[in-house]
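Weekly puzzle thread! Below is a chain. First person to post its structure in token form gets bragging rights.
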Amino acid sequence: MSRVPVKPQDFEIGRPLRWDIYDLRGHLVLAKGAVLGSEEEKAAILKQRRLRELDLRLEVPSADDDREGFDSRREVRILLERFGRVATLALVMTALTGVLRATEELTTVADLLTTP
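Winning reply:
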């Protein structure tokens, strides 16, 4: 699974972590559900460039979600960036497949005019 850098809005003091946190070598540093007790701990994690799993599920904030800095649009942008490339590649592959199949059916230029 892909990992992304931890951002300040990814976790809050006194609330359980939503993801496992890893160092740059992929070693688990903090497990999902761990609770940070101070701003100093949070600052240390951010300074050390820790990573978390990229959550491909969209988070829709509830009406009572009061997390400061929560931005579900950021997660949507990540998904669009990732899957937008895949969709473009799939379209190109489909078009190339169609062209290759069409060229198998054509033997002369005149066939272009008589193709149904």
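Puzzle host: Confirmed. Bonus trivia for everyone else. DSSP finds three helices and four strands in the chain.
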